[in-house]
Design brief:
- There is one protein chain.
- By secondary structure, the chain is an alpha+beta fold.
- The protein is 22% helix and 28% strand.
- It has 4 helices and 9 strands.
- It has a 4-stranded antiparallel β-sheet, with no helix packed on it. The protein has a 3-stranded antiparallel β-sheet with strand order 3-4-5, with no helix packed on it.
- It starts with a helix and ends with a strand.
Length: 169
């Protein structure tokens, strides 16, 4: 639900197309095997420009007075409840340590968020890493599909230029 909401807000949202009959689905994606096929859902919002998203987030933060430090390591942070203020120690790429003060902080460390939190005394985990794998093959489909194997596992087939990614991630 959150993913769809973010997509709607970005202006890139397109409703999925549901195929209740395999004949209509095969007309749209003839490369699929008809054996065992019941129907399908065509999704059109399966790609994201990761670098563009990060740049847009940084630019928005800067526009609202935030400070963004790339290639920097947070070496410590503390919250002063009486002042309602964080003190953040940061080691920059040139190994210089600087202190910053902020009313709010954003931990944008991605999958390393819990590592940073744990290093600063926070114990509860926020992220449960998911392991997956995929294969990169020469392009063979022009639409992304989500398929279910006979054993119940779900996997994706996602075209990207001259390649197609097949797998659980």
């Amino acid at each position: 639900v959150l993913y769809s909401l973010l997509n709607i807000l970005s202006g890139g949202f397109r409703l999925p197309k549901i195929f209740f009959r395999k004949k209509r689905l095969l007309e749209r994606i003839p490369q699929l095997k008809s054996e065992g096929l019941l129907g399908g859902v065509l999704i059109q919002d399966y790609r994201v420009d990761d670098v563009g998203l990060v740049r847009a987030t940084i630019n928005q933060a800067l526009r609202y007075g935030g400070q963004c430090l790339e290639r920097s390591e947070v070496t410590g942070y503390e919250y002063d409840r009486s002042r309602k203020l964080y003190t953040i120690s940061v080691k920059s790429a040139d190994k210089e340590t600087r202190r910053f003060f902020a009313r709010k902080i954003v931990n944008a460390a991605g999958p390393w968020i819990d590592k940073i939190r744990a290093a600063h005394g926070e114990k509860n985990r926020l992220v449960a890493p998911v392991a997956g794998s995929h294969l990169e093959l020469p392009a063979f489909l022009h639409q992304a599909v989500i398929l279910q194997a006979t054993d119940g596992r779900v996997f994706f087939v996602i075209p990207s230029g001259e390649r197609t990614r097949v797998g659980t991630t």
